[in-house]
Amino acid sequence: MSKMNPYEMFLKQVDEAVPYLNVEQEFIDVLKEPKEVLEVTIPLRLEDGTVKVVKGWRSHHNNALGPYKGGVRYHPNVSKDEVMALSAWMSIKCATAMLPYGGGKGGVRIAPRELSKAELERLSRGYALAIARFMGTDIDIPAPDVYTNPQVMSWFLDTYEKVKGWNEPSCYTGKPLELGGSLGRGDATARGGMYVLREALKEVGLYGKPLTAIIQGYGNAGSNAHGLYSEIGLTVVAASDSKGGTYNPKGLNYEELMKHKKVSGTVADFPGGERLTNEEVLEIRADVLIPAALEGVINEANAAKVNAKVVLELANGPTTPEADAILEEAGTLVVPDVLANSGGVTVSCFEWIQGRTGDFWTEKTVHEKLDERLTHAFHEIWKIKKQQGIRMRQAAYVRAMGRIIAAMRFRGIWP
Ligand code: NAD
User: Is 291 found in the same domain as 227?
Assistant: First the structure.
């Protein structure tokens, strides 16, 4: 598989938007580098008494619009370049959703499923301690990403607050409700994607029709999408996770698939579907393909085999620039990650606001505010796409980079 370095992907995406932006090159040059990247080493004491040395990173890409914001990923393939790319995509995403944030991201190179709960807690506290001097409600605010969750956020926050000696709940988002989390954060990424997809389907004349969908990656983003998207007429016919996929042209039952995944740990051997490989899942004919796992899965090698009218990128960076061009040629609309999955960081922002004010909102309020914000962002981007005759990703970058650079221009280049 021709997988691209994710940071090179980001640079290429910037270059593809630059011709449509009327800005000084010096700001583009600044945006092409993260401001700072902290590399940490965490000595992890395992249950057998030995020590495993674990590497981690926290990247600060740009903070012209506000404090750095972005999740922490635990995965055995995490690299510095991946964390840098994810932080840069966060800068674009936060500007796309008009949030008062810049872009940050963290990663730890570990397979969390191989750890006991006590080991996972020690690792999480070790990482939070190592990055504590880089964090703060007005400095950098982490959240969950692949293989991290509200429990991990709780250990992060507790460690941070004990090191600092004060309570500061808005330094971490994606927390459990008991620690100051927000209603509606759990399914926010999928829900935001649903609002954006609804608008996209209206624009391409598919809204209101019965539609089929494929979900690649059945974690927080992907499984919640399965649960929610029947609201906008989607029937999920195929789903996959790291162990493989399952397919049923009549539709996969959400409750049964969730129950099965909980017991067996995978969707692959679901009795209500036919087993497929991860590659086969991406090639099934369906109206909407929803990548919700990792970067680079739709690339030069397989893009021509994608058989969908719309790609909704709930994952970060699932489509390489080469694949973008192939999909455009085929008439497939790609709704880019920086818009499609921005519901997660948007509700994280709501959690940050609620934590700072002590004024907690109802779930209905969270959903309404999320819908309003993302519907607005979608139409701004759609307008630029139509006016300039460019892809949605280019239009999103034009809008986001324009906003970040406008703030940088007022600040000036200093020191
Ligand atoms: P998660 O850990 O909850 O789920 C990840 C899923 O991907 C798991 O089901 C895993 O089995 C599956 N997976 C891993 N490798 C795979 C492969 N090769 N093929 C198919 N499936 C594979 O993670 P998540 O939080 O749902 O994040 C998924 C994606 O969404 C990531 O790209 C993440 O950056 C992005 N995202 C998440 C959030 C959020 O709030 N959680 C917000 C924005 C974007």
Answer: yes
Q: Indicate if 105 belongs to the active site.
A: yes
In this structure, the residue with its CA closest to atom 19 of ligand 1 is: 242
Ligand 1 mean position, distance from CA 23 (Å): 35
Of 340, 374, 408, which residue sits at a domain end? Answer: 340
Question: What is residue 1's predicted lDDT score, i.e. its pLDDT?
Answer: 42
Can you tell me whether residue 336 is helix, strand or coil? coil
- pLDDT score of 78: 98
In terms of DSSP bridges, do strands 211-216 and 102-109 run parallel, antiparallel, or are they unpaired?
A: unpaired
Residue 216 DSSP one-character state: E
Determine, yes or no, domain membership for 373.
Answer: no
* pLDDT at residue 3, rounded to an integer: 62
**At 132, is the secondary structure helix, strand, or coil?**
helix
Q: 415 falls in which pLDDT band (50, 70, 90)?
A: confident
Q: CA 233: distance to chain centroid?
A: 24
Angle, in degrees to the nearest 10, between helices 392-411 and 6-17: 80
The radius of gyration of the chain from alpha carbons, rounded to an integer in Å, stands at 20
- Per the CB < 8 A criterion, the answer to whether 43 and 130 are in contact is no
